[in-house]
Design brief:
This protein is an all-alpha fold.
Length: 100
């Protein structure tokens, strides 16, 4: 899916030609590389600079990250069950390992 939901039909030539959309398209094609690079860059930033000013952005950014997943979630498929092994692994990771 990537950033394709951001494209608009009206005046599409202006939007596609803008620098911002070119950057989005570039990152969208290389997400496998872009995500770890940004994670390392954030870690290095936290080591070198004070990140106290960024603490207020944790909740809004978390919401922006989770919201697209919640919108496309099909509640019926959640309660149908299915791959119990994957669900068990996810629960162990989320509640047993990640908090520590």
């Amino acid at each position: 899916m990537g950033f394709s939901f951001l494209w608009r039909r009206h005046n599409s030539t202006v939007l596609k030609d803008s620098l911002m959309w070119k950057i989005f398209a570039f990152i969208n094609k290389r997400l496998v590389i872009a995500i770890p690079i940004m994670m390392v860059a954030g870690f290095i930033y936290g080591l070198l600079f004070s990140s106290t000013g960024l603490k207020g952005l944790i909740i809004p950014f978390t919401f922006l990250m989770v919201y697209p997943m919640m919108v496309t979630l099909r509640i019926r498929s959640v309660f149908q069950g299915g791959d119990s092994k994957a669900q068990l692994i996810a629960q162990v990771l989320n509640f047993g390992i990640v908090p520590f």
